[in-house]
Amino acid sequence: MASHKHAKNGLLARTTSSATDVLQMAEAVATSQQTDWFRGLGPLTVTNRGASAMEFTVLGGLGGKYKQIVFTVSTGTDASTTTVRTAISFYRTSQNTIMGFIPAGPKLMNNYSTYKLFLERLSATLKDSDANASIVISDTADSDPVPPAYSPARD
User: Fold this and answer.
1) How many domains, the chain?
2) Residue 62 has what pLDDT?
3) What's the pLDDT tens digit per position in 16-28?
4) What element of type H or E holds 138?
5) In-domain check, residue 2
């Protein structure tokens, strides 16, 4: 699959909250997120759980039956901090056309607004639980998904 301009966007955070608490926060954010078809917000469900990661699926299409975006929230811990990352692992795109086959404009990532809202709400929840949390959301086409200043290899 060719890469979309938003495919590497995500959240990178460092917090003193435990990994278990972070995953519980992520699940609470996902389950409380409202579906609003008119704003392009599809249902968000937890599809897989692990000890240090959780997978979410954004559904769309007629009746919300089709996977549009699949992403993970993963955690890693060291002595006193928990590192939180999100990453998109699957996505669908659509593109406007003229006469049904001539491309008219850039490809759009389906239900991207649902993912972006999740990132914003998770960021706010992490800040509420730890005022000193360091959080970066990359949401531009040319942004680095993991800023060099926050790379675990440099710790």
Assistant:
1) 1
2) 66
3) 999 999 999 999 9
4) strand 134-138
5) no
- Which CATH number fits the domain that encloses residue 121? 3.30.310
Residue 78 counted as domain residue? yes
Enclosing domain of residue 82: 10-135
Helix (H) / strand (E) element for 47: namely strand 44-49
Q: What is the CA radius of gyration of the chain?
A: 16
Task: Output the pLDDT for position 79.
Answer: 84
- Identify any residues that bridge with 103 across adjacent strands, giving them in sequence order: 97
Q: What is the mean pLDDT of residues 90-99?
A: 82
Q: Which residues, 6 or more positions from 76, have their beta carbon under 8 angstroms from its beta carbon?
A: 19, 52, 82, 83, 85, 152
Which residue is it, tokens 């706010």?
A: 124
What would the pLDDT profile of 1-50 be if each residue is shown by its tens digit?
A: 557 777 788 999 999 999 999 999 999 999 998 777 666 677 888 999 99
Buried b / exposed e over 114-141, threshold 16 CB at 10 Å, is bbbbbbebbbebbeeebeebebbbbeee
Residue 151 has pLDDT above 70, yes or no: no
> What is this structure's pTM?
0.82
Closest by CA position to 26, among listed 17, 37, 38: 17
Strands 53-60 and 93-94: unpaired
- Whether 143 is in a domain gets the answer no
